[in-house]
TrEMBL record, chain A:
<keyword id="KW-0812">Transmembrane</keyword>
<dbReference type="GO" id="GO:0042765">
    <property type="term" value="C:GPI-anchor transamidase complex"/>
</dbReference>
<dbReference type="Pfam" id="PF04113">
    <property type="entry name" value="Gpi16"/>
</dbReference>
<dbReference type="GO" id="GO:0016255">
    <property type="term" value="P:attachment of GPI anchor to protein"/>
</dbReference>
<feature type="transmembrane region" description="Helical">
    <location>
        <begin position="593"/>
        <end position="614"/>
    </location>
</feature>
<protein>
    <submittedName>
        <fullName>GPI transamidase component PIG-T</fullName>
    </submittedName>
</protein>
<keyword id="KW-0472">Membrane</keyword>
<keyword id="KW-1133">Transmembrane helix</keyword>
<feature type="transmembrane region" description="Helical">
    <location>
        <begin position="669"/>
        <end position="687"/>
    </location>
</feature>
Automatic annotation (TrEMBL), chain B:
<keyword id="KW-0325">Glycoprotein</keyword>
<keyword id="KW-0337">GPI-anchor biosynthesis</keyword>
<dbReference type="InterPro" id="IPR019540">
    <property type="entry name" value="PtdIno-glycan_biosynth_class_S"/>
</dbReference>
<comment type="pathway">
    <text>Glycolipid biosynthesis; glycosylphosphatidylinositol-anchor biosynthesis.</text>
</comment>
<keyword id="KW-0256">Endoplasmic reticulum</keyword>
<dbReference type="GO" id="GO:0006506">
    <property type="term" value="P:GPI anchor biosynthetic process"/>
</dbReference>
<keyword id="KW-0812">Transmembrane</keyword>
<dbReference type="GO" id="GO:0042765">
    <property type="term" value="C:GPI-anchor transamidase complex"/>
</dbReference>
<protein>
    <submittedName>
        <fullName>GPI transamidase component PIG-S isoform X1</fullName>
    </submittedName>
</protein>
Amino acid sequence: MFKCCLHSQLQFRSETSLESDHLMGSREPIVLIFLILISTYESSAKGGIAEELNEEFTEGLLLRPLPDRKVLAHFHFQSSVPPTRIYGRHHHLFPKSIYQLVNKFRVREMELSFTQGRWNYERWGGYDPISSSSAKPPGVELWADFDVPLDQVDDSWRNLTHALSGLFCASINFLEHSTSYSAPQWSFHSFAGKLRYGTLPREAVCTENLTPWLKLLPCRDKAGLSALMDRPSIYKGYYHSQRLHLTSDDFGTAKSNAGTMLEQTLTVVLQPNTLGARAMVSGKTLQPSWSLNSLFGRKVHGKCSVSKSSNVYVQFEQNLVSELKEVRKKSEAPESGILIHDDFGNNTIFEMSASPDRVVKEVENLQKEDSSILLEFLVEDYNDSKPFDLGLRWKLPVVWSCQQAPLHASRFLMGSGNERGAIAISLKSLSSNNTPTVGCCEKGSQLRINIFQVVPWYVKVYYHTLKVFIDGELQSTMENIEKIHISPSEDKVSPGVMEMILRLPCGVITAALTLEFDKGFLHIDEYPPDANQGFDIPSAVVSFTDFQASASFEDNLLNKLPILNELQERKHVISYTEVLLVPLTTPDFSMPYNVITITCTVFALYFGSLLNVLRRRVGEEERRLKSKAAKKKGPLTSLLSKLSAKLKGRPVEPPETPSTSPSLINNKLVLKVILVAGIAAGWQYYFR
Amino acid sequence: MIYPPPLNLVQFSFLAISEQYLSILTQTPIRLINYRFRYRSPPPFREIDDLSTAIESSPILFPCHFRAVFVNFDPNSYTADQLSISVQAHMAKFAAKNSPACGTCASNVTVSVTLDSNSNCISNGNNVDWKCGALNEFKFAEKHEDGLLDEDFASLLDNNSGAKVYTVVAVKTEQEEVRAVVGKYRHAWIMGRIFEEEAIEKIAEIFVNVFMNGGKEEGLIHGEFMPLGADGRIVLSFNLLNADPHNWIYDWDFQEIDENLLSPVIDALKPLADVSVESQVLYHTPKSSFSFWDDRLDSYIFSTKDLPFFVNSNEWHLDTSVAAGGLSKILQFVVYVPSAKECPLQLQLPNGEISTTNGFISPMWGGIVVWNPSACLTDSKIKHPLRYKISSEDSRKLFEVFMGQLRQLFGLKSDGLFVGASGTSILLASERGFSEWELDVLSRQHSCFNLLQCGTTLGSLSRLVQSLPRMIIMDDIGKQVKYSLEAARLTLSNALLGIYDASAESSRQARLLAEDAFYHPSMMSVSYYSFEHCFAVYSPFFLPVSLHVLLAVLREWKRYKQESKKYYAWKAK
């Protein structure tokens, strides 16, 4: 609407100037330039509307205060290109590398995410579109759907992982082994057989992954909203997830004009800088105030010049909106004005540094009283001399909680020791009165939960031991599972995959699944570096198929904006569980060398003594000793000779006793033989 | 004899244990090695050495066929044989100036001469199919259009035999000015008032320096640095860089350029290389060095000495292509649109002049053209940058510069003139970018260079394998080496027969296979078990043992000296 206004205004202005031109005759060239400018701007805008088939790039940023004094920033960039058969293969906005990738490997849909940290479902919400689409498991997650014959899917996947690992400077190529990826049948996304899914939970995510990701944007981080991405501020956040989602119908037989679409999002959860002590108002702590500059250390200097739209949104969630109303009622006189029509720039509860260009309200659905509000700010109007720095300052303390997923999913390990254990997935109702579980129960239907879990082959899961506990009591598995698909792991070939739809009664408070497993052994070559750290079991995906995480907004014009499209996309509520760390028995990797060393030492000792014995001339030595004894020596020299004899390891034979009885030696000999025999017997006894 | 019996017993028990350990000790590493690689198949070292010596000792030379046609010359002054001999003598003189480069013609060139005058028509040599008197139909004086003449000659000289014969037609006319033109096909003509000796020298020069060597001069790119990938593929990557999109944004219709201008060039290069084209437009790509304002030239000047710092590899994400394989060559062609702060930007030659093309090349990398927008001097304080499209006329001009740059990257001349000792000749430019005789030169050089490369690769492979006797070589590598050698031999025989295309093709095959063998993944992971490593592992054994042995030797030596002293003393008694 605003845009329309702008257009009409511009048109009006151009008309007036035209009239004035006619009236005044010749004008200054500046006016002419201005005129040309406006007309070209107009024509380009009109051309954009008339000619649908063009490349487009849009950028957007959504900011949302979180209940635990943090701020969520969700960057959204979208590039799209019409299909090749209409538009050709030369582009001016769409990244060349991605286009080539799609065409070479015939990718129909693909999603790649790099995540650091874990999304806190309890505090940051688990029901809204952002947590369902942008909360990702730690490390790398990649899934891709190919448009190739079934027998070539694996090859395409392997090539794709290599290409992506080169493109994003990450070890995605580790996903090429058949042990590290799986082919979900129906639970993950509904593609038949041509989808591959793999995760690398331990991949460290850093700037070297962000820079190639930014390279795919036409303005990179030089201009527009991406200029906010100051690396230190982004990476010091609590959660960081960069995502790349790609859809293409270039290969489909359907003559749709959707073409290829690349969606890039970066979701960060940041802690605003609260200088000094927390501000207190009437005994409660205030939410921290923040601005773009304090969050990112930078400001926005205008939009990326090739982007079609460049907007910043601040979202107040539904619960926050109702809380704001409450606070308002309490603090002020019963001035029961609806918040929407209030001044958002400055009211009694909070203050914003810029007034929004538009306020968008979510369409109320069903019994919800309040709905979330989006404040829209257009970046186009700002430039170098007047940078955009949005700030939010709280005046009154507000406490609220985010909307939760129907059940909170978590996963943990049970058992101890290096031999066996059990995996448990627990689903817990957070028992707050505003969970949508209530709605489900009213219908009297059951809660259906889709669980998808991949387990590496060295964790040998016994699927027959699957147990379902509901509210702490063991239940029959058959009754509570609607559908299940298991492909057991094969040693060194494929991981175990479990997909199931769990059916739970409505008022359920806790539900748990347990699966027992044995820990396998790996070949010495298969251990990764630092094997003692343990092995990761990738996150399980829990999706609530009865619930749609989508918001619909009142304004139809908004459908043009991709960032809001993303929010409105109808998707199941999805949450990821924790990554599990399984310690496996690890061998002592230095053992072969130790064995070699000790054996060598023993051999060297044996060799040395053998050599000494062989070399010794007993008769000669005795003769020499005798001749020495014949000579009369002083006490000092005899002592010296004794010492030297001892040092040389020869038996000290006092010259005074030239001959000893052989029987005595025989006694010693017998003793020693017995000793050796005893040791040998003991050896045999203990080591048999 | 005090201790021996118990010692013996201990010895036996030790022996019993050590027997087991010994087996472990000796067998583990061997087993480890054998576990991974089954056997070692040595590449044919001798054949590789033969090939590399054959290639290195004498450069590959192709047989070439030349034909000179003298029209309207006096038939009585020279006979055809005399002319042929003197042309060959002159050619030898020109060829002697520079050593026979790889991929040129062998010394045993054949020159056939035809004398065509009004009355009679004499020729030597056997396969001369010159239509005598055919030129009389042309009115040379009326036809000044070189392109039309070229087509006429082409139809005249069209031979269906397939053999590649280079022809120079010398026509004696009444025109004062002598004009030498090299056509787009395999012929050239000289026209004007010219005498036999002069004509002979000129013909010989065109044969040697143009048709044989491609009109190259010193300082141009050497044939060895031809921008061709080992797999014979080139990716031409065209980039339009908008240095600062806040000022203006330029776009181009590359689809049109690709279809209309590039595709004939790609077709022309097909026998030489498999060319693919891609394009992209990038934004926020400033160059890395600064220019300065020159009042006299009324523009920003970037001097030649700063050119190495023009390419800004930090900001120019020209990107290697995903579509190109690992062995393909990527040539980047960049159109640089300067920002308003430094517009118009001109490149300055070392002699102070402004470059006419406003571009430069970097061998084996590609070319850059600075393109100044016409709206340079308008007000830059525009809130919303304007989007423009480079007009088709401008893009045609840009493309022409790029074609010249591509020709230069291939080592060919881009200015269309050949300045020789006997005067200047005009080189007609083909609309396909490369004329036929140039492609011949390129494919000769290409096959020669490929063969050289193949020889050195195989040579280093064999040296590597020989220097590491314990390294295990997979069977595939041996096979690849064998096939590579076969292809190399085929190239040599094709070169002898003078089939340029086929020899280029097989030489490419030979090089590709050699490179594949060298960069085989199993070679890359150097998983061989070196002797030194073996020694290091067993050093806990060898060190104490050697200590014992040394001590024993010392003692024995001492005793020997003592005893011998005693013996001598006793003997002396």
